[in-house]
Amino acid sequence: MGNSLGKKFVITSFGESHGRCIGIVIDGCPAGLPLSEADIQAELDKRKPNDAVSSTPRQEADKADILSGIFHGHTTGAPVCLAVWNEDAKSSGYEKTKDIPRPGHADYTAFLKYGGFNDYRGGGQFSGRNTAGFVMAGAVAQKLLDLIGVKILAHTVEIGGVRADSYDVISAEVVNNNPLRCADLRDAAKMLAAIEKARAEGDSLGGIIEGIAINVPAGLGEPLFDTLEGDLAKALFAIPAVKGVEFGAGFGVSQLKGSQNNDAFRIKRGKIVTATNNSGGILGGISSGMPVVVRVAVKPTPSISRKQNTVNIAKMENAELAIKGRHDVCIVPRAAAVLAAMMAVSLCDLALRAGIIPEVIK
Amino acid sequence: MGNSLGKKFVITSFGESHGRCIGIVIDGCPAGLPLSEADIQAELDKRKPNDAVSSTPRQEADKADILSGIFHGHTTGAPVCLAVWNEDAKSSGYEKTKDIPRPGHADYTAFLKYGGFNDYRGGGQFSGRNTAGFVMAGAVAQKLLDLIGVKILAHTVEIGGVRADSYDVISAEVVNNNPLRCADLRDAAKMLAAIEKARAEGDSLGGIIEGIAINVPAGLGEPLFDTLEGDLAKALFAIPAVKGVEFGAGFGVSQLKGSQNNDAFRIKRGKIVTATNNSGGILGGISSGMPVVVRVAVKPTPSISRKQNTVNIAKMENAELAIKGRHDVCIVPRAAAVLAAMMAVSLCDLALRAGIIPEVIK
Amino acid sequence: MGNSLGKKFVITSFGESHGRCIGIVIDGCPAGLPLSEADIQAELDKRKPNDAVSSTPRQEADKADILSGIFHGHTTGAPVCLAVWNEDAKSSGYEKTKDIPRPGHADYTAFLKYGGFNDYRGGGQFSGRNTAGFVMAGAVAQKLLDLIGVKILAHTVEIGGVRADSYDVISAEVVNNNPLRCADLRDAAKMLAAIEKARAEGDSLGGIIEGIAINVPAGLGEPLFDTLEGDLAKALFAIPAVKGVEFGAGFGVSQLKGSQNNDAFRIKRGKIVTATNNSGGILGGISSGMPVVVRVAVKPTPSISRKQNTVNIAKMENAELAIKGRHDVCIVPRAAAVLAAMMAVSLCDLALRAGIIPEVIK
Amino acid sequence: MGNSLGKKFVITSFGESHGRCIGIVIDGCPAGLPLSEADIQAELDKRKPNDAVSSTPRQEADKADILSGIFHGHTTGAPVCLAVWNEDAKSSGYEKTKDIPRPGHADYTAFLKYGGFNDYRGGGQFSGRNTAGFVMAGAVAQKLLDLIGVKILAHTVEIGGVRADSYDVISAEVVNNNPLRCADLRDAAKMLAAIEKARAEGDSLGGIIEGIAINVPAGLGEPLFDTLEGDLAKALFAIPAVKGVEFGAGFGVSQLKGSQNNDAFRIKRGKIVTATNNSGGILGGISSGMPVVVRVAVKPTPSISRKQNTVNIAKMENAELAIKGRHDVCIVPRAAAVLAAMMAVSLCDLALRAGIIPEVIK
């Protein structure tokens, strides 16, 4: 259960890290949207491991494959099923450690919940690999959002305690062209140094990513419960490793007085805007027309080569585990692509629900 | 739209601040649960304004009224409808300022989304008053959770930048018996001083609340999308003023290495536990059996008496607004009761979905 | 569970026959719709018992009470909660027979499903009285459908085996002005005679009602599963006593060849129509623009005064039951109002889902 | 939209007649169920064309392919994705007639709803071919129902006006071993003769199928709206060509008095049963423990070789169409397999919702 998200642009995930494929079905995509595998591939490629920050030895082409829903180069209104096929899964090593849950991983809870029937190879459906499906869905959602001018950018604001604080502007070009997805190259260099240090220590690093959506039409979000914040947060907590979500001033609101935190309304070139954006573009759970700003906390990758204390479930005794092989030292920059994708999915769903994106694209 | 939450324990909110009542329908409450208005009243009373931190002049009895679903003192399996009737709403003042949205409020976005048809009196359905319904639903959910031993406590960890850092243990008795809902009375005194200062300045304060649920059975949460984190976060962002949600180490994960953040599994008295709880009791979106720990950021009440910049929507020109009357200086302690209620609602829904709470209570 | 229906125009039912009230919450009603209690009362009155066909001694005013969602005479976009208050429930008689389920009633299955905690007074939430809520929701839905010209008429086509076959046209005026809701007064007279005979025998009669919706825009229905037929059928089977639903030629298709059953497309005054309407206005689960025609089978009221065989659940032995008091001999004509209401609810939901009715009425 | 069905055992359909594949994702299948492709294939084969009644020239192996959710021969709790790959689609002929909708088909409504972007080759997602996915999901559902003893049999009760009325008992062996799926071989012979006659005339025949589920536990169905009747009907109307659904005495209730239609409760071998089963095993929308009996009306296949009147949408003028190639003369017997599958899907969903089938199979 729980593998579908959304009410009008509904995505359903399937597949496992070491199974046949990772797939996603999109139900509710309007008819008439031009869509090709190249459109999706461009987004998938942003999620790929890059040598600077990761070193996963698994070589996957992650080539987008459209299984349904496209005819003559356009969506038909029928479900769009997208898949990437697993080609380089090496599962032999997992039998040995199947009773020894990795600290910080879903191994233990998946074992409990599914009575030991869960596919433990590479984390099964709990693998970060499943976010390939999220990114494919995000690519379609973004194409729909393009129709109403919404642009989304996700960038790294902190890694291993190193804060990006040098940038004046956030340029998509700068962000997308450095492996740290950082808005400032000097900050990126510091982050990289921290990552290199952690790698040498057999350790991993977490961080914080910020997603910004501009040109979001006012009126997205369905209070009281399907608020823009609530729906976005739910979508973002589906990204493995995310442990916190905040909007606008976020946890910083505790430091502000009402007179500081309230964003004054002003008329600017005939339009109502706010002088500040502590609300992150959301008031009463509804978009205000200002940029939607969200930050997520990404925990350090749990798979580390340092020896860790754990248990043997079968023997019910304490055990130690040193995870072999090479792993991502820091998934934060890769997670930026997933954050942008899930923002797109959620905003697109709410835009369809509000009738802002039509049922047929003409 | 969006006024229902949950999949098995489904709550549907209705009512407005200055309408007839605030109500909530619970669909999916198992049959056979003993339930009286007194059970609900006890929780509602925790949400009441208290003189220390608030000074809302509106006098509402907020008496729980059961409209359906109870027979011979037990739930019947049919929907439970609960209401509190509005008795002291004074709406005359709102006509004057209906075109002048309060900064930081939903006034502006509700106007846009609902084409000006929204009930603007006291914020209509966006009023914090609607959380009375949340608390009533939470009272029922908590009674169900009692059957499996789950206890929830919410306490204030920060107000106006004053951090509660003196406590060694978190005692429900201490928390519930001081108006700040703080685990340490010395910290509570400091927070109170900050609140008094803000009150004198015609300003307001935000803060941070922490919710802790113990004895949560392992296995709650339905990945990939209906994760324990995602579902809780969605429920918590329904509380007006919440701008951030984090679990366990939360945004602090960015400062930790994997070797620090990973919670080591250990055998303790024949059970598997973790040595630390940076995960907040959640791994892979599923409860691990450790305490579920969540913190929410609550923004300062937007209604302040200081003069603020805003606009007149009808005239499309800049305007000023000084909100008359007395308002809550700091809603953080009252929000603690709502946080606990929404945690109960969400955990109860997931426990029912996982089949841990039965369909009929015997 | 299961007390909500719809995806965009979502109705949630609460209340019991002998409880405080019967209520319905509508979530998703667009803002800006003029709505008064008089609008709803007009529909409720159509459902009232009439002396010709029923003789329920319970005297209920069934006065519509709006609890939320209306401001300045218009819907606000917030949930609309509507109720009728029970005023004449006499519950004393039910204790005696609580262990003796009435044949054909929900008494037995409700007892099993809810572990004996169900409210057995007057059938509790299984009472036909709950359809007062359906009719109130239908009144709101019909006002929305009026905006796009959809008109719905339900009429009696059979009672106790007496078929209405004399009418040439179906006139709303004729249907609404005879207590049988029959399109021909001669047929109505025959049905009435059959009812009188059954009444004299202490028995009851079932029948068939037909609902017709005209001006239904093409494109309603969301295949594969939320088809117009599937969604309508689900809504109609919520009406107590309905045991069959058929569209267009319905079960008669078994007698037809493809060349007879296929409705030929033709151009008529510049529009595409079909020469016949065996499809009942629905092809591939989607409305075609032709009238939507549905018929439902309504079983005879199970409450009859003749002695019947049943069991005593507490003693687990055979028993006899003769239901005292006066009951409806034939609910078919009253059910017509409910059929029309549920058609309106379902069509309105699909029209909102298809974006044909806007989010804000201007 | 609308391509998912169910609340706990949720199926999501994708694929088109002439696309890459037909697929179905099952979310909510309990972990621990032994499942192989052979299990699914056995059911798929029952849906295959057979020479007696059909003559579709398309040669599809319809081999079940498991894409996810199975590990070590058991379900894992993760979504199960199943597909059959299209291998023999010949699409060239469809371009010529794409503007000429086939009478009785979804061609016209799909064109309208999806703005002409629908995949018109072989009916696209409206093709009967999509029921291959239904049957695969049904195979999984039936394996779960096996755990609680539920058996389902679907048999043909009428074809082209020829009623099966000779059988005394309904034997699964007889039904499954004649191509008509008829409970009596003499009746089957008469039906076959009618089919041969229609074939010679270039015409097609409809019919009626009955589905019977035995050992259905009491308590399935979630009133008021997710009733057993409502949920089953919704599932069954998803089968192309179904135009009517009735339970137990169905439309015949109009001919019965209450004293005839009411099923008397009786004690039999220490259990409560009913003497008759006019209710079709359902009272108040909840299963009573008696056999669940449902009948569906299946319209004649619209694709016939006789010349028919239609229109040219592009030219907006009247046109004629004679559908080339060989088609099923009568899909009724093949639809029986689909009926059984959808009954299984729906009953399984309700059994999971009621907690009767556990979350993990041990």
Summarize the structure.
4 copies of one chain form a homotetramer. Chain A has 362 residues and is of the alpha+beta class.
Overall description:
The first copy, chain A, has helices spanning 37-47, 107-113, 131-146, 172-176, 185-200, 228-236, 258-261, 332-353; strands spanning 4-5, 10-15, 21-27, 65-68, 70-71, 74-75, 80-85, 151-159, 162-163, 207-214, 242-247, 265-268, 271-274, 282-283, 286-287, 292-298, 308-312, 317-321. Chain A is an alpha+beta fold and 362 residues long. Chain A has one domain (4-353): Chorismate synthase AroC (Chorismate synthase, AroC fold). Chain A has a five-stranded antiparallel β-sheet, with helices on one face. A five-stranded antiparallel β-sheet of chain A has the order 9-8-10-16-11. Chain A has a two-stranded antiparallel ribbon with strand order 5-6. In chain A, a hairpin with a 4-residue loop joins strand 1 and strand 2 (10-15). In chain A, helix 1 packs across helix 3 (131-146), helix 1 (37-47) crosses helix 8 and helix 6 (228-236) runs antiparallel to helix 8. The longest helix of chain A has 22 residues, at 332-353. The first copy, chain A, is globular and about 70 Å long. The A-C interface holds A 7, 354-355, 358-359 and C 7, 354-355, 358-359. Strand 11 (242-247) of chain C pairs antiparallel with strand 11 (242-247) of chain D, so a sheet runs across the interface.
